[in-house]
């Protein structure tokens, strides 16, 4: 069975919203079961179970996301969007990273996506203990926000390439197109935005110190958003890029050279050495800025992925009855069981 068209998904969701809600104080959100998505006849028959390095299979798409109570609703919507638009949904393996309540999170994934192939890994927050400094927004300071730095350490050797997705986005295209990009000699691929004012991502203390600024020597650095990345984990491990990122985190603790959480270390290590991906794969900034989260419009051009980076999250704005126009594009993927939508019986 091929993935259902968007209209069919909307109809299924509209019928299911009358299920009773079970969300109480202290509980994780409750979700409706997603439809089963099956491969089309053109999809290669393949499975992924071996954890050995020699088991790499390019037909299997590996996607990493984090799971936590705050962003769980966004993560569930993101998974549904990937499956709905994938040409070969049964060939996708999700790798979830969580620091707390793993048993509960596993149960939610299993009951919401009974047919999903996934693995759940423990992210030890002690890995970043003493390395995180306060930033412009509290959400950016959470240890799980730094888990993307440790993907090469947490995932098994059989995973050569990974797509990393933030928990506040939806995919509206076949993710295989993103998976199949050629990274060339690069470790990381992402949409780049060279028109952005790069100086804004670091403090005056950084730019006034030649010991810091020379880190960009020989590169033409451009901004990229770390919420959508394609990473060659084998090259990452060989180049010890986790250690390089941690070095900048330690420097930040001492000198305060940036204020935007886990993003600046990635810019310091990779900017100017990234395989550029079409902008359609990260229509970011839909959550507004990091302070007010005001409504924003789409960037010009085609769209394959919508990303609510910034302070404003679509599920919060929809619940508050003050949504932005583009939040309606996220709503059809929301499997959350609303407490107010109880059965009349």
TrEMBL record:
Alphabetical list of Gene3D superfamilies matching this protein: Spore Coat Polysaccharide Biosynthesis Protein SpsA, Chain A
Pathway: Glycan metabolism; pectin biosynthesis
EC number: 2.4.1.-
CC terms in the record's Gene Ontology section: Golgi apparatus
Membrane-topology descriptor: Single-pass type II membrane protein
Signal peptide: 1-25
Full protein name: Hexosyltransferase
Keyword set includes Transmembrane helix: yes
Keyword annotations from UniProtKB, A to Z: Glycoprotein, Glycosyltransferase, Membrane, Signal, Signal-anchor, Transferase, Transmembrane, Transmembrane helix
UniProt family annotation: Belongs to the glycosyltransferase 8 family.
Localization in the cell: Endomembrane system
Family annotation (Pfam families): Glyco_transf_8
GO MF: glycosyltransferase activity
